[in-house]
Design a protein that fits this description.
The chain is of the alpha+beta class. The protein contains 15 helices and 14 strands.
């Protein structure tokens, strides 16, 4: 096996750096291949650093790619991406209106990492700079994200669907361009994610101030309209109604698919069978157009906003109106940015598979998808010699990593153990209740549990409750059929939570063990306000 020093998907950390895998699985799914991780590592690190530079959190000296893994935002261990808790804590310390402790709690569910000292951070010294630059950054990102997405849709359609690369040179050019496109949208996405999170926290605080509880805060963050996933579901509904062809649907949304953040995954434009399965479910369930649900949620939000303003004192109403307006404008931008970088990832995926074919034809690889076991830098430099020995070593590492259990969080370097049926995937007998974060829902919902690990392999019927580990846009067409959602990982600003609120689907997120402890076919009662999920083996009387 490769040593950690020359293994692109297994880093070596200092003994004191704190790492967490929380929230990474939603965007970067599964054990990463060398190409998948080195691409993500490059584009993500640059995007996030530029975002924090624009917000004033980072000085110019910190915009360059760090040489030490302990100074990076993320690294991979045994092929699993993890975030640097101390780095995010330092960023939070430089942000007015929050703190390092609050940021790591929101992102990772962690407390201040051991050894993190306020005197080592920029602290309030950068507050004046951030106070000036942060509003400018928010305005810039909000103004430019949608036009960039429209541009990227045209670029993706032309470069991947209409005229994909034919040879090594054009494939390398597309691979490089995809990285540039990711960074272009990623810088704005990272800005909007952090800013949107801050606005959501302040809206929750408004609810607390007005009603003494945050239970109705979700009704203030729904019905924003024009969400990317609503468009996706609307087009799928039109295919089910024979109003849009499947080819036209794939030409618009074919960059989605199971584990779409993993470069080596097979997505809808390559295999449309999962789409056809969802079309059949839409037809059999007679689901309504998502615009109908969206309209109902807009009405709900507007009524709740009126209640909030009436409950607040006169002196607080101006600030509340501004915060609600910012929420309507900025919170949906997270999903716009995500759609943009998913187009870029699929551009890279297309380029990689063309390169794989080319390298097989030249005798440098044995199989097309062996290309994913080369790194981003190796591919853009041009491969001119046989790579079978290197690929075999990296594939052996990858196969080994898929057999391992890696902790959710650790300090230094993680200890991985061989996964067994007795480990965390084994159901705990007799569990009658689990608790997560209540995302949406003002009344209890009861239905049959459908536990799913793959959106392409689940058949939902009306009244079923979808139980899954995490969600990406390839899961969202199922939201129209599901009676409620129970999701293992995430928070109030995770993808699944945002879309559930927008559609008015009762949802509990961050149960941690739902897919383990809920038997498929069990009868559940889901409370989207309290976050409590009650489990019964048989249908209640």
């Amino acid at each position: 096996m490769s040593s950690a020093s020359d293994n692109p998907v297994h880093a070596t950390s200092s003994p004191t750096t704190r790492w967490s895998r929380a929230n990474f699985a939603e965007a970067i799914q599964g054990v990463q291949t060398p190409l998948g991780w080195t691409y993500w590592d490059y584009v993500m690190e640059i995007s996030v650093r530029r975002a924090f530079g624009r917000m004033g959190v980072f000085p110019r000296s910190q915009l360059k790619m760090p040489t030490s893994v302990d100074e990076k935002f993320a690294a991979a261990f045994f092929g699993r991406p993890a975030g640097n808790v101390r780095t995010m804590w330092l960023i939070g310390e430089a942000m007015p209106g929050t703190s390092g402790d609050a940021v790591v709690e929101q992102m990772f569910g962690e407390r201040r990492p051991e050894g993190a000292r306020k005197k080592d951070s920029a602290g309030k010294r950068r507050y004046p700079i951030v106070a000036v630059k942060l509003p400018l950054c928010a305005r810039w990102a909000a103004k430019t994200l949608r036009p960039i997405l429209a541009d990227q849709r045209q670029w993706w359609h032309q470069s991947v669907i209409v005229s994909p690369p034919k040879d090594q040179a054009s494939a390398i050019a597309l691979l490089k361009r995809s990285a540039e496109e990711f960074i272009r949208v990623g810088e704005r996405h990272a800005s909007m994610t952090l800013i949107g999170q801050g606005i959501a926290e302040q809206i929750e605080a408004l609810a607390q101030s007005a009603w003494g509880s945050r239970d109705r805060a979700a009704d203030l963050m729904t019905g924003y309209g024009s969400m990317e996933e609503t468009e996706l579901m609307g087009d799928l509904w039109e295919v089910a109604q024979n109003q849009l062809s499947l080819d036209d649907f794939l030409a618009r949304h074919g960059y989605h698919g199971p584990d779409e953040g993993n470069l080596a995954s097979t997505i809808w434009r390559e295999d449309p069978k999962p789409v056809q399965r969802m079309i059949d479910q839409y037809r059999s369930a007679s689901v309504a157009h998502p615009k109908a649900k969206e309209a109902a949620q807009i009405t709900r939000r507007e009524a709740t906003e009126a209640d909030l303003l009436a409950a607040l004192g006169r002196g607080k109403r101006s600030k509340a109106k501004l915060l609600l307006k910012l929420g309507r404008s900025l919170i949906p931008m997270r999903e716009v940015g995500k759609a943009g970088f998913l187009h870029a990832i699929d551009g890279a995926r297309c380029a990689a598979r063309v390169l794989g074919d080319d390298l097989v034809a030249k005798g440098f690889l044995d199989a097309r998808d062996d290309v994913f076991f080369l790194t981003y830098s190796e591919l853009i430099a041009g491969v001119s010699t046989p790579q079978q020995e290197l690929v075999a070593e990296r594939k052996a590492n990858h196969a080994q990593y898929q057999t391992l259990d890696v902790p959710q969080a650790w300090t230094g370097n993680p200890t991985a153990e061989v996964a067994t049926p007795k480990a965390s995937d084994a159901p705990v007998a007799g569990v009658e209740q689990i608790t997560g974060i209540g995302v949406f829902g003002d009344e209890e919902v009861t239905g049959r549990a459908r536990v799913a690990l793959d959106p392409a392999a689940v058949d939902l019927e009306p009244g079923d409750i979808l139980v899954c580990r995490t969600t990406d846009p390839s899961w969202t067409p199922l939201f129209l059929v599901a009676e409620a959602l129970v999701i293992d990982t995430g928070g109030q600003m995770s993808h699944g939570a945002i879309v559930a609120r927008e559609l008015g689907v009762p949802c509990v997120i961050n149960t941690l063990t739902g897919t383990r402890d809920i038997p498929d076919g069990a009868h559940l009662t889901v409370n989207g306000t309290t976050g409590v999920v009650t489990i019964r083996q048989t249908e209640p009387a």
